[in-house]
């Protein structure tokens, strides 16, 4: 019988002593393993694999992609990556409990909805800080597709023609209107840092919201001066 208050036992196990679960219906392509490995190289293995001790063997229940990534990394540096952080399920778990948890671990992650604009903003800040997109699970193509999805779905904010700033180009994609400012790299980095501070101070989610906040503040200050 499964108890909700069971305290899991955690330990380090040699990756070669972890037996794969033949009932795992998920397959992990090399491209995904590469992304997990890149994440491990940057952050380390921060989430344990889930295993069961059975007949003097350690059998994997959840985390096969992570185990594959550790094997891949161990080929380059075995001393660093030869062990995996695991958590043990209770010994009294039946085979049906084990396979049920495997399914639950895979499927309960489905259905979440992304805030693509916020995600794109986070990725932009990460790349500006010198971090590789691969460590975040993204390829350059993934990033391009994310930006394209924002361009397709962003609402129209205004259809009135406005005078152009000399630094400003205007692009229209169907119902989406995008304003692109041109700055040299040092100026751009400073602007992003300032927008981040505004976001933190005013609990805003994206740089777009921070920029809109600045425009509203400017309009309010100028209307008050009249």
* CATH architecture grouping of the domain at 9-107: Alpha-Beta Complex
Helix content: 40-55%
Order of adjacent strands in the largest pleated sheet: 1-5-3-4-2
Please state the overall shape, judged from the principal axes of the Cα atoms. elongated
Q: How many strand elements?
A: 7
Overall mean pLDDT:
83
* Separation of the first and last Cα atoms: 73 Å
Rg, alpha carbons: 24 Å
**Structural class by sheet pairing and helices:** alpha/beta
Q: How can the largest sheet be summarized?
A: 5 strands, mixed
Q: What is the name of the CATH superfamily of the domain at 9-107?
A: Conserved hypothetical protein from pyrococcus furiosus pfu- 392566-001, ParB domain
- CATH names the topology of the domain at 9-107 as Conserved hypothetical protein from pyrococcus furiosus pfu- 392566-001, ParB domain
Strand content: 15-25%
Regarding CATH, which class of the domain at 9-107? Alpha Beta
Order of helices and strands: EEHEEHHEHHHEEHH
